[in-house]
Amino acid sequence: MSQITLEEVYALARLAKISLTEPQAKQMQQEISQILGFAQQLNAVDVKDLEPTYQVTGLKNVTREDKIIDYGVTPADLLQNAPSQQDGSLKVKRVL
Question: Which of the 8 DSSP states describes residue 90?
Answer without folding.
Answer: E
